[in-house]
Amino acid sequence: MDCHSPGQGLMPASFKVRTVPLDGDDSATEEVLDPDFGEAAIGRVAPVDSGKLFSCCLYYYFVFKVSPFCTTGLWWIILLRAYGKCSGDLSVKERVDVQTGIKMILKLCLADGFDMFPTLLVTDGSCMIDRRMGIHGHPLEIQALFYSALLCAREMLAAEDGSADLIRALNNRLIALSFHIREYYWIDMKKLNEIYRYKTEEYSYDAVNKFNIYPDQISPWLVEWMPEKGGYLIGNLQPAHMDFRFFSLGNLWSIISSLATIDQSHAILDLIDAKWNDLVANMPFKICYPALEGQEWRIITGSDPKNT
Which spans of this chain does the record mark as coiled coil (predicted)? Predict the structure, then answer.
């Protein structure tokens, strides 16, 4: 945008097919893809997970043999492994350009920064929920996809001397990320009672309330809604902020990828069963519970009608 470009390893937010004349033959034409890396996207949002686009990209790559984009997303790694497992065709992941793409994504995601946490820091609207919903920071959906993509990348990366440092960083991040999500994103009745007893403004290496969460931040609806049996992974966590909303994709993908422990996975399913009328009822599984209403909806989403 303007004079700034994102780092390599990003997948297009969208793309269009453009017909151009062949070099040296004005009577013949060919179709080329023009990728958009967020420069033309609504709100100029960077596509962190690139989930909405990926089926189209796979179609163009495997049907028309279009060269891979080299700038890819978390879903690209996950579906690349799935394609190899389902088809038995391992030649795609072994290609030099595909291996290069995997490394570019990992370098982008594992780059050092100012963040103190192993989770990925992203802006609001950078994932499946592509409009503002107050999920800026470290949303669960992105962390679950990040964890799954790291596992898939570790399996597909070719063992060579040039990849040793990258694989070492990948393994370290997997350990730190899984502990962080399982320990700090988890909420059940026991954890809820612990938060109520938190001391605040603790300056210590041994502080229990590491994120300086104020008990008053606990939403009134949560106390009444949380069942005695069951729990879930909260939607977001950062200093002085816990988003207690239930996000279905993040929790379900955490089960699929084993980011959640076995006990946590069972507890999530127990909660879904106990709160079936709230989360499913007569409609497909809700993306988020509870929904935003009234002034909260207007302030957080910017009165975006897509979120009604």
Answer: none
15 forms beta bridges with 35
pLDDT of the residue at 121 = 86
Q: What is the distance between the alpha carbons of residues 295 and 74, in angstroms, rounded to a whole number?
A: 34
From the number of C-beta atoms within 10 Å of its C-beta (0-12, 13-18, 19+), residue 146 rates as buried
Q: Is the residue at 9 inside a domain?
A: no
308 in a domain, yes or no? no
Phi-psi region of 59 (alpha: psi -120 to 50; beta: other; left: phi over 0): alpha
Does pTM surpass 0.85? no
305: its two tokens: 């009608």
Report which of 281, 304, 278 is spatially closest to residue 291, judged by C-alpha positions.
Answer: 278
Note down the domain range covering 81: 14-301
Instruction: Count up the domains in the chain and report the number.
Output: 1
* Tokens standing for residue 234: 């909260």
**pLDDT category, 129, cuts 50, 70, 90?**
low
Name beta bridge partners: 237: 242
Q: Is the peptide bond before 290 cis (omega within 30 degrees of 0)?
A: yes
Tell me the average pLDDT across 51-78: 47
Q: Is 238 contained in some domain?
A: yes
- 264 belongs to a structural domain: yes
Domain CATH code at residue 235: 1.50.10
Please report where in the chains the tokens 């990728």 appear, as a residue: 35
Q: Quote the radius of gyration of the chain (alpha carbons, Å).
A: 21
